[in-house]
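We treat protein structure as text, and this decision shapes the records that our systems exchange. Because each token names a local backbone shape, the row as a whole describes the fold. An entry from our holdings is shown next, in its original layout:
>
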Amino acid sequence: STPVKDGDVIRWQFSVYGYGADIGSDTESDTGIKKVTFANKDELIKEAATLVNNKTMMKDADVKVEYNNAIKVLEKYNPSETEVKNELTKLKNVQKDFVKKTTVTKASVKGIKNVKGLKAKVAVKKIKGVTGYQYKYSNNKKFKKAVVKSIKKNTLTTKKFKKNQKCYVTVRAYKKVNGIKYYGRWSNYRYFAMPSISGKTTNKKKGIKVVLKKGTGIKQYTVSVSKNSKSGFKKVKTVKVSKKKSYSFQITKNGKKKFKKGTYYVQVTPKVKFGNKTYSSDVSTVASAYVYK
């Protein structure tokens, strides 16, 4: 007996004439009939057998046509060696083409910013040649009960979130080929939160009173101040979260400078800890307060 291993080609044959000459056996000395020389179909058989078990590839029209062509060659009694080799090359090439046209680059979240109404706007780096992007976000890092949405744009505005709620977002790109969607890998998830804060003016000496409510899962807050609502923020305080539900404190300086008359903006950026590392939220909340002379 001959041991058989995975990937071997097993072929059952039977002779019609020449006591086996028609299937390649040398019986000429006994029968006077020359044996038939056959092209080697083993590689083509293996390639076709492997391909037919790939359900994803077999859904593609081009792959299916070339697979059927290969079967026609295999069903021929004695195709030429050239015909078999050419069909093997075509079958391999159509699979390479399929991989090329359906491979999707892993997406990357470019940034997240808060917008009015306790919503966040997610921006994804554009990927050439894709049909669209599938977004997934949740307030659970395991993405339980996540919101999933597929759109063509590389930006998405989320639904309204609750104050002090931490959220996670991930995205993947996809291509649509012959009506079938092919997805890339999910991006590394990004974290954001929308803390509830308020800035209250007392007087110049006392500065700005900040009231900050504790958010779920948040370990720390970075507090910054600026004269501009969108830029120029300087860190003035770090608030470590304990069991308290809210935190109240005074800010008397903008960086190292004392407050002057005018409107100031207080920015609070939450941080969350995973393992030994602390990650900042991609979204910050800004409150304004007026300082009098």
About this structure: The mean pLDDT is 85. The longest strand covers residues 262-274.
